[in-house]
């Protein structure tokens, strides 16, 4: 184990190196680019032995990864924003074909208007594409989830691609001290990729075929079941990771000061750290507040939510996303769990950080105030007005 | 060479068999022949299109070699991944081959094809050209020739079918300075077989553009697929050629062209053309051949 001062992207690249992917397709897009630059340097200096392929688009980046995965190779690619949208067809293709590709996505706003800064509209708009979606908080979690994601994706019961999301710039370009595990420990954690879902000369297969109405739903049902079943694999993976590396992330969610909390804020990604500090401040004043970080959006952590929210009075969802004409996508998902389980609490949505707008300590304090006093359900933070104005 | 594959020595094994292609389908013949030449160590990638629609219907899967459907735009990019993946897992002595139609190659797939050639990935890309989007029911593609009637280029009083000439994909591919590119036709199977065999032995990206008529789309009887493909070469609207080491070579140098009018009017898709339309095609043909005779190596014997 060594320590280094790394950006989120650099840390993720270190995690990729330790995972030893055999084929990597790369295409640049801000703010993902430094990941593929680091990986290119690793291939150049032979610290990563991998087929590095300079594709000519994001569609080709994922199409190439699918082809390599269909030969039984461990693969990696990375993207962001417009690139993620450009490869949307291949997102569904990879998950439907059950190819356990790992991809990093640098969360960035989507055009129009053009904007290179961080929000989560890119990945949340692709929530239904059949990928497991992880949102990480800091550089260490970025590195660790690069490794964990292969362990989850390649489990034969899961066999589903994983998208790891890092907030653009705030995480991808911010430097922190990171522990880099040894290759020996990484190999102990992550064995080589083995699968039956591949073409081989000894056992020829036809893959990525058509399935008509008579069998199609069965394929989709099995895909759904596998992603639901991945909840257990995610927790087992985290436990195994803790055993070897001494770090644990709690599986699908990570709670903070939830005991006896009346007012709970749900977060995802890098904003969680600041929210935790605000929770501490308010707790010092005797206010019963807590925080729940959603690490995985698919599979959706329904059971964790029920357990965490069961005795709360109000819950807020803070997300860098809006589904135009309704509300934040994460909020819709949270409300569905609350309704299905008959929980009796108020829910509020806080749309913030779109196009990279800063979310301040004061904003978060005001959000907790809103949870305590009540008010409008869907709120835009930092806009200076409500949607009723 | 003595060990060349010929009609007499080609394997009896079938790799694309029991599929649901239409009677007289030229594309399925091109795919069948290509895989017979390449053999069981071929790993084929076919995009969404006719051949994947007729050959990959679970549980009725018709390729006995390893085969996979790619996205429509992703034949070449998936081929790149398949080739790299196969090497990465230690597979040796295999050939990654793409088998895509004209729309999948010249239109939606041209970006990925260009990228693969640019990287000089060790793949063979075969475009079977039936001159329109046939799987969706005969719509104009970038390789639909001038004058052809399709469901999106109808012929009427004012417009006589497709207004634009066929994109010159062979030379577009060659302009990448590709290791090897060739044109072919199912109207000349020995030449097609030779070129597949030759391409399969060349390291780096290779490309074969094979004309493969579609009786439904072209408006011909199902037993005239081969004959119309021959007529297309004989009248000079197609040519058999190769590009290698920066040089174009014409493989068949006809002394005279057969009647272009006879070729065109024997097909339903060209029935509406008047003499002025046919003259436009004849002028285009003659200009192309003048350029070929001037710039290409044409010393090869007649096939």
From TrEMBL, chain A:
Keywords: Oxidoreductase, Pyruvate. InterPro entries: PFOR_II (IPR033412), Pyruvate:ferred/Flavod_OxRd (IPR050722), Pyrv_Fd/Flavodoxin_OxRdtase_N (IPR002880), THDP-binding (IPR029061), Transketo_C/PFOR_II (IPR009014). Residues 15-236 form the Pyruvate flavodoxin/ferredoxin oxidoreductase pyrimidine binding domain. GO terms for biological process: carboxylic acid metabolic process; response to oxidative stress. Pfam families: PFOR_II (PF17147), POR_N (PF01855). Its EC number is 1.2.1.58. Gene3D superfamilies: 3.40.50.920, 3.40.50.970. GO terms for molecular function: phenylglyoxylate dehydrogenase (acylating) activity. It is an enzyme of class 1 (oxidoreductase). It comes from the Bacteria. Residues 261-364 form the Pyruvate:ferredoxin oxidoreductase core domain. Belongs to the pyruvate:ferredoxin/flavodoxin oxidoreductase family. This is NADH-dependent phenylglyoxylate dehydrogenase subunit alpha. The gene is padG.
From TrEMBL, chain B:
Residues 48-210 form the Thiamine pyrophosphate enzyme TPP-binding domain. One of its GO terms (molecular function) is thiamine pyrophosphate binding. It comes from Acetobacterium wieringae. The keyword Ligase does not apply. InterPro entries: PorB-like, THDP-binding, TPP_enzyme_TPP-bd. CDD domains: TPP_PFOR_porB_like. Its EC number is 1.2.7.1. Keywords: Oxidoreductase, Pyruvate. This is Pyruvate synthase subunit PorB. It is an enzyme of class 1 (oxidoreductase).
